[in-house]
Fold this protein.
Amino acid sequence: MLLGIDTSGKTASVALCTEDKVLAQTTVYTSLTHSQVILPICNDVLKNAGVKLDDVDGIAVAMGPGSYTGLRIGISAVKAICFAQDKPCIGISTLEGLANNVSLHKGIVCAVMAARLDLVYCALFESDGRKVNRLTNDEILSLNDLKTKLEQYNGTIAVVGDAADKLEGERFIIAPPHLKLQLATGLCSAAFGKELETPDKLDAAYLQITKAEKDLQEK
């Protein structure tokens, strides 16, 4: 049984899952900082499912790409919990979690998130209708470069993520609103079958430097 936590975007999402069942999930699209809401949501999810933290085998958390601040909040919270409770954890690509939201689609899945300017975070996967397998690494591309990359794939492509609507055309199936953004259930789905690690190995994967770092380099 895994507890999943995603704070990589506008949504704060927590889920409690076994390999074949979602025991509880709460997802909030919030203007509050994730530090204000994520731990109370964790407590509520566990309480509503009638499960104690001691009964959880490990925690899956979004490790990026995504909001720098959001990722740090989620990862720091998971590290603190796992060190205190002596539990293992695993960092899951935000894009892989998103792809698992639409695993019912048989074929290519494109997970795409807005970055800066005309850039997007993206990765491609293939689903058999149940299990999602990675085709490309997470990367940051211009939207035009992503469109060019997608031309080499045949068939209908499912698109998920907050930049999904930027891909238009008959061959693209845009995920519906309840599946388009980050969900902790997608993280848990991606995490099952992977090896859990100690919290000291957990780290963020930003894909690009922060704006402050970029400004400093340009001085």
Notes: The mean pLDDT is 93. Residues 104-177 form a domain with the Nucleotidyltransferase; domain 5 fold (CATH 3.30.420.200). The chain has two domains: 2-95+182-218, 104-177. The longest strand covers residues 119-128.
